[in-house]
Design brief:
five-stranded antiparallel beta sheet, seven-stranded antiparallel beta sheet, mainly beta, Neuraminidase
């Protein structure tokens, strides 16, 4: 395959201009229509407290090119006096329904203020589409129904950001995290004892009702994404990759589909940016590689992972794509391929399922001076990643 057919040109989908900034990308690929849906927040500045509402662009994939439609405001994903944040799509393939989850935060109240005061002002909501994202339902507020009184122990919470997943069992999963109040003094919460923990919201009836899983402990983990793996025995395993306040990303597995997670561990091959940064992960069927490849063996699992995240250890820059051919083994990530050199921050990945060779879409924040000047899109093939890793294994940089 020619080099030009392995990686597409970078295309800007959302650009900082006219006093507006676009942040927090989320990407979904609808294989039945060969269509991407790209979501983001529209803000009046890069700051979280200046978020307003969610926007979307629809892209028709044709080979290695995507024809993008105009920007659309998601007018039903709103709650009066609240700002809408953290788009997180999840797809019920059986019924053809796209759910777009998000949080609504009371205007002018920052995340830091909620943590310091231990007073949550965040709501959990979603809209859905049955026609491939062309029209959307009114907002449903799930806060009382799904979180209930437990919200009294959360200083704040959020979903994603990025995409959710549907498991082979049919279960729908929305990654999330909450700042749990661990310490109180004379009945009052102490911010020093309020820590973030990842978990998942889930539905076993196609999205009619939702429940919350248990918080991951003991390590602190916030923004996260999930992927389903298949081990050598054809058994499903849920994988979670989470942002950490430490130097390294956190990884953790669940064997019951996201209700309970095992103890998380630090990934020595995935270093965090200063103060951490969101990252994205997706699974895909392992390629049928010849025995001569150093990436394959008789013990090769049925599923592989790729992960996107800034690779620069000093700042949010140089967005890398990491490959993991042995995701059930610790520290199996390969040297990253740099997809975008320069300022880069949040990103979201999507697998173009049903294609051979497999292709991936990446929606990511980037810029010249700062990572928040635009949100761009790029396609690349699985063969590109394999060639890079083979060359790296052979010592060819």
């Amino acid at each position: 395959m020619a080099e030009t057919s392995e990686v597409s040109e970078k295309v800007t989908l959302f650009r900082q201009e006219g006093g507006l900034t676009y942040r927090i990308p989320a990407l979904f690929y609808l294989s039945s229509e060969s269509t991407f849906l790209a979501f983001a927040e529209e803000r009046t500045s890069p700051q979280d407290e200046d978020a307003k509402f969610l926007v979307m662009r629809r892209g028709q994939k044709e080979g290695l090119s995507v024809k993008w439609g105009p920007l659309q405001i998601l007018e039903t994903a709103v709650l009066p006096k609240y700002r809408t944040m953290n788009p997180c799509p999840v797809y019920n393939a059986k019924e053809g329904t796209i759910f777009l989850f998000f949080i609504c935060v009371l205007d002018h109240i920052t995340n830091t203020h909620q943590i310091w005061t231990s007073k949550n002002v965040t709501r959990l909501g979603y809209i859905f589409s049955k026609d491939g994202g062309r029209t959307w339902s009114p907002m449903t507020d799930l806060t009382e129904q799904v979180i209930g009184k437990d919200v009294n122990n959360w200083a704040t919470f959020a979903v994603g950001p990025g995409h959710g997943v549907q498991l082979s069992s049919g279960r729908l999963l929305v990654p999330a995290y909450a700042y749990y109040i661990h310490t109180r003094l004379f009945g009052h919460a102490l911010c020093c004892g309020t820590k973030p923990h990842s978990f998942a919201f889930y539905s076993d009836d196609g999205g009619k009702t939702w429940q919350k899983g248990h918080l991951q402990k003991p390590l602190q983990a916030s923004e996260c994404q999930l992927a389903e793996l298949v081990d050598r025995n054809n058994s499903p395993v849920l994988y979670c990759n989470a942002r950490s306040h430490d130097r390294y990303r956190l990884e953790v597995f669940s064997k019951d589909g996201g209700c309970l997670f095992e103890a998380p561990f630090r990934s020595r091959k995935l270093q965090e940016s200063p103060h951490g940064c969101q990252g994205s992960v997706v699974s895909f069927p392992s390629p049928q590689l010849g025995s001569e490849s150093s990436l394959a063996s008789s013990k090769t699992p049925k599923s592989w992972l790729i992960f996107s995240h800034p690779t620069n250890r000093k700042r949010r820059a140089d967005l890398g794509i990491y490959l993991n051919p042995c995701p059930l083994e610790e520290n199996s990530w390969k040297t990253p391929w740099i997809l975008n050199t320069g300022p880069s921050a949040y990103s979201d990945l999507a697998v173009c399922t049903g294609e051979d060779p497999v292709f991936f879409g990446c929606l990511f924040e980037c810029g010249v001076s700062t990572p928040y000047e635009e949100i761009a899109f790029q396609l690349f093939s699985g063969e590109k990643l394999l060639k890079i890793q083979k060359a790296s294994s052979a010592g060819k940089n």
